Amino acid sequence: MMNLGIIYFWRRLLTHINLRNLRVEHPSPQMLSSTMKNPTSKLLSPFLLGFVALIPNDTFRYTALALSLALAIVCSIHLKSPRAQLAHLTVFIDQLEEDIRRAMVHVPRSYASLAEQMRRLHEVAKKASSIKCRILNSESKSFSWNRFRVLSSDIGECTKDTKNICTAVELILEAEHQRKLTYDIMEIQFALTAA
Questions:
Q1: Taking a C-beta distance cutoff of 8 angstroms, is the pair 3, 56 a contact?
Q2: Measured distance CA(37)–CA(68) in Å, rounded
Q3: What is the pLDDT of residue 25?
Q4: Cβ of 113: how many Cβ atoms within 10 Å?
Q5: How many Cβ atoms from other residues are within 10 Å of residue 17's Cβ?
Q6: How far apart are the first and last CA of the chain?
Q7: Are residues 100 and 68 in the same domain?
Q8: Which domain range does residue 140 map to?
Q9: Are 112 and 175 in a shared domain?
Q10: What's the mean pLDDT in 188-194?
Q11: Tell me: the pLDDT tens digits for 6-31?
Q12: Of 122, 138, 158, 171, which is most buried, counting CB atoms within 10 Å of its CB?
């Protein structure tokens, strides 16, 4: 029974861990938005299941499984809390603002459209700040599912707006890239016809 538990543990560990997901890279806005998941949550499940499989006594095994399940529920509730969601949104907004500022410097032709996206992003940041004030004010009050739902919904709306801004900025940058490629193609064709 013990060897089967170890085999099960390693098999689950090897099938669920993808080492490419554990690389640390400079986070792009797309990575941050889809990111709100972290590699440690992917590692936690196989380790807990492997640990539970190694327990020889059924009573202790089921107790450990119940405690692991309770811990997973508490962690997922914490990760879905408005404060945690807002922290992820703030990181996303900051990274996107930095990317827009960098694009404004490198792509002066699209400065006006990038400035418009920056304005939209600052409006979203203002909404996020307002939500943060509401969260801070509600911490002294008793827990309410309705308040939790409304805050999460507002944060989700801000996240959606930020993703739309990110997509618009990427489209602007891609249009500029296509313009440069078109110019390069025309330049090469001119050089070939002149030769």
A1: no
A2: 19
A3: 35
A4: 16
A5: 14
A6: 79
A7: no
A8: 82-194
A9: yes
A10: 90
A11: 444 445 544 444 433 333 333 444 44
A12: 158
